[in-house]
Structure formats: structure tokens, C-alpha cells
Design a protein that fits this description.
This protein has 485 residues and is an all-alpha fold. It contains 17 helices and four strands. The strands form two sheets. A two-stranded parallel sheet has the order 1-4. It has a two-stranded antiparallel sheet with strand order 2-3. The N terminus is likely disordered.
């Protein structure tokens, strides 16, 4: 490092906590919508396909997986596109805000139509609304996530990402709490009718006889809060003004980036930095294969394998969220001590251990209770540990990716990061849905699938080069956070 660079990096970096929390409102809206989407849509599709093809739950999971994957395939294509477009956009309200506003309002309008079409047994309408929501959420998601590194020096991005993710998980937890009061399994309960022979039989299209507000309310509430979060962001974050104010500080942060070779604005990536990027994205692909695989089918595991109420799964989601929030709160400080690579590695190892434990319990202790309607306490423990471990992974992996680019390419590299996760989300529902077609493979094998994928991820990540800059100066404790505008 040159003498000039050393002098430029002498002053401690200090995170603007107020602005970071406000930026977090974008992630609040993202996870709020996705939590409702992931918790409800697979089961809605399962019920629609079961009735349409007179099949069992396991037999239609392949179709459910395909539909969920097609949504993510569109996202895989669109995320890098919107990232690059927003990098090059210039407008009076900034380069990210136009995409955030348009994406938010289209999603908010279309989202409540998903349960409405389902209520009237319209497969085409349900799937079409899901596709529109996913496409416009990608318009929103990439630019919204890119706002944080746009306005945060590189050494502070793990801590800032912790705040952003806490805001997101508050959104997810809120959606889950709402779902507890509008319980899907009760909406799908069997209604008995009298047939021509005078016998009581289950009614066809059972859900059409139930109270539509039991499934409509969570979608409406998510749409409303998404709009509110976007408006808070729009009226408080002035992109162009902040970009000018932060220019010198961001440039100073470039001097102490955790990269193998220094990143230059108009130069191609070095081979070492490119190798680091590919390894991170490869490992990310497999940890999302694990995490989203079980996330997509956990509702069905609860209903069809355990025979328990979806309320139990929603509580389980909250427990995992608590573990995640703890990890997000302290993960940045752990990274300061261990470095980002070993913090991510530790999170992967901890999550892998939780999956191994769950798999063992699933075929020993839990085997006899499957289908008896109870939700074992031990799964709450697994979800808490998994939530904490994966929070360390998500907290530090995204800053590692955008560390490898200049400020002119943050949207594009954000697109690469999310393209990798969406590629996994495209493949993993189909893979699991296909496995469930085999007679001996049921929902009890979810943790086995997850631990295999996460084990591959852990092996790949071992080859990521650990780059820890020892002379980064940041404020400590409460002094690390600046509440000034």
C-alpha cells in the first residue's frame, strides 16, 4: 500500500446507522413478500394440482417444483439485466429508485390476485399472477439491495448488511405472525356435503367453500406494507445527493478492500479476483440449493409428513428468524476478528451440523411420530441453529462479491450474486420434486438432501482465498455507528 493510501485510510470508518436502517426498508418489503409467497404458494399449487389430476401430494410435487422453478428462471435472467440497467441509469431521483418504485407498485397490485384465483380454482390465473410478481420483484430487488453498497464504504459492508438483513427478517417475521392468524390448513379443511344417495362425502374443490379472507389477508397486508416501505425509502433517501457526499469516503474504502488484487474502475478483473468470484458464486449456488430446497417444501413436510398445522411451521419460521437476527447483529463483529471467509465457513459448518442432527432424528426419534399431528420441539432447535449459521453466511458473502467490483458495477455484481441464488432456486424445486416421485423418497428425506448440497458448498468455499486487511480502522462499540444524516 502506498504512503498516500495509508494516509487516506488513517481516519476510522464510521457507519451511518440511521441511513442504513432506512435503506433496510427496501429489504423489509422484499422478505415480507417472499415469506408470504414461499409459505403459501407451494401448498396452494399442491391443492390445485391434486384436484386437477386426482393425485396424491407426493405425485404432484414435480409439477409444483416446475412452476416454482419457472418463476425463478425468469428471475435468473432478469436480475443481471436490471442490475446493469440501474448501473447506467441517470435520473433526477437516482439510478436505483425508478426500478424500486415501478417494481413495488406492480407487485403490490398483482400479489393479492394469487389467492383470489386459487379460491376460484383457476390454475392459469394463479400461475400467471405468480409469474408477474416474480418478474417485477426482480426489477425491485436488485436495485434495492445495491443501495447499501452504493452508500457504504467496503470495510463497513458486513455490519451494514447485518442491519439490512435484520430489517428484512422483521418483514419476514411480520408476515409469519400474520399467517398464524390466517391459517392455511384450516382454510383447506375438508367440507362435507350430502350426495344424491344421502351420504356425507367430501366436497370437490373444498377450498372454494371456505372463507377467502383466511388466505387473502396475508397477501393484502404484504402488498400494503411493501408500498409503505418503498415510500419511506423514496422520501428519505436522496440518491444523487448522498452519492456526492459519500464520494471521498467510498474511494477511501477502496484502498482497504479485502481482495487479492486492487480493483480498478476501467480495468478487467484480475485472474485471482475472478477465481475468487467464481468460487464464492459456486459455493453460494449449493448453499441456496440446500436452504431453498427445504424452505420450499417445509410447509408440505409439516402438513403431509408430520400431519401438523401450518401454524407450527410459521412458529418454526419465527424461531429460525430469531437465530438469524442474532447472527446478523453480531456477524459483522465476528468477521472483523476472523475475516469474512472463515466467518462464512463457520456458518456453513454450523448449518451442516444442524442438518445432520435433523436427519438422524428424522429416522430415529421422529420416525414413530410422523403423521401423528405433532410438531416436534427438536425441529425448533434445528431451525434456530440453522438460522444463526446461515445468517453468518448471507451477512458476509454478499459483501465479499461486491468487494470485487468498483462503484460503477455494483448493480451488475449484485445481479451475479442473486443470479447464482436464483439458479439454485430454479433447479432445487425440480430436483426435490423429482426425487419425491420415487416410492421410497418422502418428505422425511428433506434434511438429507440439504446436508448433501451444503456439504458440497462447504468443500468449494474452502478454496476461496482468505484476504484479511489488518490495518482497517473502524469505530468500536457504539462509536461505530453514526446517527447523523
Amino acid at each position: 500500500m502506498t504512503g498516500e493510501a495509508s494516509s487516506n485510510t488513517a481516519a476510522p470508518f464510521k457507519l451511518n446507522i440511521k441511513r442504513t436502517f432506512i435503506i433496510g426498508f427496501a429489504f423489509f418489503g422484499i422478505l415480507l413478500l417472499w415469506q408470504v409467497y414461499d409459505s403459501w404458494c407451494p401448498t396452494l399449487l399442491t391443492q390445485l394440482f391434486k384436484d386437477a389430476f386426482s393425485s396424491s401430494e407426493e405425485e404432484v410435487q414435480y409439477l409444483v417444483g416446475v412452476i416454482m422453478a419457472m418463476d425463478n428462471l425468469a428471475a435468473l435472467i432478469l436480475l443481471p439485466i436490471f442490475g446493469r440497467l440501474s448501473d447506467k441509469t441517470k435520473s433526477p431521483i437516482g439510478k436505483r429508485m425508478p426500478y424500486i418504485l415501478v417494481g413495488t407498485f406492480v407487485c403490490a397490485v398483482c400479489f393479492p390476485f394469487i389467492p383470489l384465483f386459487f379460491h376460484y380454482n383457476n390454475i392459469a390465473g394463479t400461475v400467471s399472477m405468480m409469474a408477474i410478481v416474480v418478474i417485477f420483484m426482480m426489477m425491485y430487488r436488485n436495485p434495492a439491495v445495491a443501495l447499501m453498497p452504493d452508500m457504504t464504504p467496503k470495510p463497513l459492508r458486513s455490519k451494514a448488511n447485518g442491519i439490512i438483513n435484520i430489517m428484512g427478517y422483521i418483514g419476514g417475521a411480520f408476515a409469519t405472525v400474520v399467517g398464524i392468524f390466517f391459517v392455511l390448513s384450516e382454510y383447506l379443511g375438508t367440507k362435507m356435503i350430502v350426495n344424491e344417495a344421502g351420504d356425507k362425502v367430501p366436497a370437490p374443490h373444498t377450498w372454494a367453500f371456505q372463507n377467502i379472507w383466511a388466505i387473502e389477508a396475508p397477501f393484502l397486508i404484504a402488498s400494503l406494507l411493501m408500498v409503505i416501505s418503498a415510500l419511506v425509502l423514496f422520501f428519505t433517501i436522496k440518491e444523487n445527493k448522498i452519492e456526492k457526499e459519500m464520494e471521498a469516503e467510498l474511494r477511501r474504502g477502496e484502498e482497504v478492500a479485502e481482495v487479492v488484487d486492487k480493483v480498478e474502475d476501467d480495468q478487467p478483473m484480475s485472474k485471482a479476483n475472478k477465481a475468487m468470484l467464481f468460487l464464492i458464486l459456486g459455493a453460494e449456488f449449493f448453499w441456496f440449493m440446500a436452504d431453498n430446497g427445504i424452505g420450499t417444501f417445509m410447509g408440505n413436510y409439516t402438513i403431509y409428513y408430520l400431519g401438523a398445522s401450518t401454524r407450527s411451521n410459521m412458529i418454526n419460521t419465527i424461531v429460525g428468524g430469531v437465530g438469524s437476527v442474532i447472527g446478523f447483529a453480531i456477524g459483522g463483529f465476528i468477521a472483523d476478528k476472523l475475516g469474512r471467509k472463515w466467518t462464512v465457513f463457520s456458518g456453513l459448518a454450523l448449518s451442516l451440523a444442524s442438518y445432520v442432527f435433523w436427519a438422524i432424528m428424522n429416522f430415529t426419534v421422529l420416525k414413530g411420530s410422523a403423521g401423528d399431528g405433532t410438531f416436534p420441539f427438536i425441529i425448533y432447535v434445528v431451525w434456530f441453529i440453522k438460522g444463526f449459521g446461515m445468517s453468518l453466511v448471507h451477512l458476509n458473502s454478499f459483501p465479499m462479491v461486491v468487494e470485487l467490483c468498483s462503484s460503477k458495477k455494483i448493480g451488475a455484481f449484485t445481479g451475479y450474486y442473486y443470479a447464482s441464488s436464483m439458479a439454485a432456486q430454479t433447479i432445487t424445486p425440480i430436483a426435490l420434486g423429482t426425487l419425491l416421485l420415487f416410492p421410497d423418497f418422502n418428505f422425511g428425506y428433506l434434511p438429507v438432501y440439504a446436508l448433501v448440497c451444503l456439504g458440497i458448498s462447504l468443500l468449494i468455499f474452502l478454496f476461496v482465498k482468505s484476504v484479511k486487511v489488518n490495518k482497517i480502522k473502524t469505530k468500536k462499540g457504539f462509536e461505530a455507528f453514526d446517527g447523523d444524516d
